[in-house]
Write a structure and sequence with these properties.
This protein has 417 residues and is an alpha+beta fold. The protein is 31% helix and 27% strand. It has three domains: 3-169, THUMP superfamily (THUMP fold, 2-Layer Sandwich); 172-298, Alpha-Beta Plaits, CATH 3.30.70; 302-416, Alpha-Beta Plaits. Helix 7 crosses helix 8 (266-276).
Length: 417
């Protein structure tokens, strides 16, 4: 090993190394000495840089003090202990990629600042950067997994304050579509308005307005398979609680938090959800996706098709009803936030288009008709029928000249644009 391996600045390097060993607060390990010159040359580890420099200093007659490193407290002599701790924590988790991070203790931060005051920080790299790299290389060798600096599945955190290893297990994201066959089930957990989830007499101390949701019904099966801590459902819009979601189903992404398993047979999972939630919920078209898919489906424009039973308050001829539906096709509806939701939504006027409106069946005696309407997502379909006291224009009620009310409603298709 030669000092010129450290590059053209060898004289300056030797001078700084001499100053570190002379003015330092005690013995310094090869890693900590070499790390002060990490930016000078490539292809050398910090401990090799340190060894080279110490040899050169000895040839110049300088006595090198041996013992516990005053900079890192001999942290780098105990790397295998940290690797062992990390592997023990990782043992319960399935992963292909990882990254190592470090929470540096106050004492080591102070020591690093002191050595930088002596040597300057021009050529140095931080202690935690070297520790992350050295532990990461050893984990790669021991596990066969790869370090990923962009999107690791697991982040191994070396907490030098507590001397423990922590894990940040990144979520698994799955795209799919759900069908909801039973009315009265919300899409996601709906916390009690009175106690906000704490539990009270109104919610019978459940903390929820409704006993179950699509999210909860799915999560029971999903979390069992992925061995996750929690699951969040992100939907492409949502249907009202009293509305079924049929046909092709509603697009969604589930976010599985802290999964111990990351690879599950998704076709098997679809069957499991179907079997465990007969008559309530099914999921289809499952596929693994990245986090970005959440924003994509939440911001996606979609056309939705509804099938609804409509009650007419007075007798209407079938041809008049057909004429009113024909007028809706292609119409742009101006809809002010409905009175039933204005307490929780901004009071705005929204414009939404109707693509198709057809008569499925007509009962002149009971004045009950079944319609199918395809429209832009975000259109309040119940108010398209009733008019909501003039807040929705045009409406079926307005075009017919009589009150109309949607009695039962199903979503039968959600078409992403």
């Amino acid at each position: 090993m030669r000092v010129d391996e450290l590059g053209e600045l060898s004289d300056e390097v030797i001078e700084i190394a001499y100053k570190i060993t002379k003015e330092g607060l005690g013995p310094i390990c090869d890693n900590c000495l070499g790390r002060q010159f990490a930016k000078i040359s490539s292809g050398l580890s910090n401990d090799k840089r340190g060894k080279i420099l110490k040899e050169v200093l000895r040839t110049k007659g300088m006595e090198i003090e041996e013992g516990k490193c005053w900079v890192c407290n001999s942290l780098f002599a105990n790397l295998e202990q940290w690797v062992t701790k990390a592997l023990e924590r990782l043992n319960d988790y399935e992963f292909d990629s990882f990254l190592v991070g470090t929470k540096v203790s106050g004492m080591l931060l102070e020591n690093e600042e002191q050595i930088w005051e002596i040597a300057g920080a021009t050529y140095a790299e931080p202690l935690k950067a070297e520790l992350n790299r050295e532990v990461g290389k050893r984990i790669e060798v021991r596990t066969g997994k790869r370090a990923d600096f962009e999107m690791p599945e697991v982040v191994v955190i070396l907490n030098l304050w507590t001397e423990k290893v922590e894990l940040q297990v990144n979520p698994v994201f799955i795209y799919g579509r759900y069908r909801k066959f039973k009315r009265g089930i919300p899409q996601t957990r709906w916390f009690c308005r009175e106690c906000h989830g704490r539990g009270c007499e109104k919610c019978k101390f459940t903390g929820k307005m409704y006993a179950e949701s699509v999210e909860e019904l799915i999560s029971d099966s999903v979390l069992t398979e992925f061995k996750g801590d929690d699951m969040v459902l992100h939907g492409c819009g949502r249907e009202d609680i009293d509305v079924r979601m049929l046909g092709s189903g509603r697009p969604f992404v589930v976010e599985i938090k802290a999964p111990r398993r990351r690879k599950v047979d998704l076709r098997m999972l679809e069957e499991k959800v179907k079997e465990e939630n007969k008559g309530k919920v099914e999921i289809t078209s499952l596929q693994y996706v990245k986090r970005e898919m959440i924003a994509k489906i939440k911001n996606a424009e979609a056309a939705k098709t509804y099938k609804l039973d409509v009650e007419l308050k007075s007798k209407v001829a079938e041809e008049d009803l057909q004429d009113a539906l024909d007028k809706l096709i292609g119409a742009v509806i101006e809809q002010r936030t409905p009175t039933r939701v204005v307490h929780r939504r901004a009071d705005l006027v929204r414009k939404r288009k109707i693509y198709n409106a057809r008569l499925v069946s007509f009962n002149s005696e009971e004045q009950i008709t079944v319609l199918e309407i395809k429209c832009d997502g975000g259109l309040y379909i119940k108010e398209l029928i009733s008019g909501d006291g003039g807040r929705t224009k045009p409406s079926l009620s307005e075009l017919l000249g009589t009150e109309a009310e949607a009695k039962e409603l199903d979503v039968v298709d959600v078409e992403l644009k």
